[in-house]
Specification:
The protein is mainly alpha-helical. It has 3 domains: about 60 residues, no CATH class; about 150 residues, no CATH class; about 100 residues, no CATH class. Helix content is about 50%, strand content about 10%. It has 16 helices and 7 strands. The N and C termini lie far apart (about 55 Å).
């Protein structure tokens, strides 16, 4: 029984549809691989998983839809219509202290990426004050850094409770911005090349092994080579083992720095909108649901807590979407639309 059980280790538990994986081929898919009908109308899926597709040389790309992009676009439209603002992702005022103060107080209901309970509990401890702090915030509350024991060392060093030390000048150049703690996949690749003697191709294999949701154990393939390479270059065994444990954590879910930076931009823009135009932000957010962690009622309560007058849906005044009316005090009145009434459909 034990032998049979071991053979099941690593097998898929159930079927699941990839969130945004697309395969691009020259010919028709049904001539190249088995396909099946998905639950969604007019949607088909490949019966193989992404690792099989990659092994067979198919071109697979991830096209993930972000509801917050829709929300921000709608917010920009409302801001132009009611406040005469011509906003874009590029011209939102940067490094605004009021925005970061709001973030540090975890006043982030509806804000992209940092609205979850886990993120809200981290914000007062990390205390983001700059854009790169948001990059770190996005990346650090992930299974990879948590399982790799990177979170607490980073927080202790950031708050001055632990000295920041680097075993070599080369590693200081790699890990300086993250206080000696590897938080991103790019850092892991550079450590492997500079501190352990990996070739760029081997470092890329390491990156692939750290890709999200890979089967457990793939990073361990590099353990001996990484530790041996670091020992040969004068690093202590304890430090080499700690580095490997941290990199091993990326096998669960580690972020590329470029990915975290792109997300951090949306974090800041959505925070700025919530901070200065909560009426616009709430209206756009409600018009972009379903997305995020919160129900419409919670978003309405939060808007009222920020000084927005919210009026119920009215056959004489409401549209299908939530809309903004004349100002009541500092902000426009948010009129709920018919889309908020349960049971109504367009």
């Amino acid at each position: 029984v034990l032998n049979l059980t071991r053979e099941f280790m690593g097998f898929p538990r159930q079927l699941g549809q990839h969130t945004g994986g697309f395969v691009i081929t020259r010919g028709k898919l049904f001539n190249l691989c088995p396909i099946l009908n998905a639950r969604m109308e007019n949607r088909t899926c490949i019966e193989w998983n992404k690792d099989d597709i990659d092994a067979l040389g198919f071109l697979k790309i991830d096209v993930l839809g972000l509801g917050m992009l829709t929300c921000i676009r709608k917010a920009f439209d409302l801001a132009k219509q009611h406040y005469g603002l011509d906003l874009t992702l590029a011209n939102i005022p940067q490094d605004d202290p009021a925005v970061y103060e709001m973030i540090c107080h975890a006043d982030t209901i509806g804000v992209f990426q940092i609205e979850s309970r886990a993120q809200q509990s981290m914000l007062p401890r990390l205390k983001p004050k700059t854009f790169y702090d948001l990059v770190v915030e996005v990346a650090i509350v992930r299974p990879g850094p948590i399982q790799g024991d990177m979170v607490h060392p980073y927080l202790r060093r950031r708050n001055g409770l632990e000295p920041v030390e680097y075993p070599s000048k080369e590693l200081e150049e790699i890990l300086g911005r993250t206080l000696g703690v590897p938080l991103f996949q790019e850092q892991a690749m550079k450590i492997a090349i500079i501190a352990a003697g990996f070739t760029p191709a081997e470092a890329d294999e390491l990156r692939r092994s750290m890709a999200t949701f890979k089967a457990k154990g793939m990073v361990q393939h590099f353990e001996k080579k990484l530790i041996t390479g670091m020992l040969e270059r004068g690093y202590k065994l304890e430090y080499a083992q700690r580095v490997f444990r941290q990199l091993e954590g990326f096998g669960s879910y580690g972020f590329p720095e470029s990915h975290a930076a792109s997300f951090a931009l949306l974090v800041y823009v959505s925070s700025w909108l919530k901070c200065y135009y909560p009426d616009v932000f709430a209206g756009a957010l409600l018009n972009s649901l379903p997305m995020g962690f919160y129900q419409p009622a919670q978003l309405v309560i939060d808007a009222r807590n920020h000084g927005v007058v919210v009026k119920e849906a009215d056959i004489n005044y409401s549209f299908w979407d939530n809309s903004l009316e004349e100002k009541s005090g500092k902000y426009c009145i948010l009129r709920l639309g018919f889309r908020q009434i349960k049971g109504l459909r367009m």
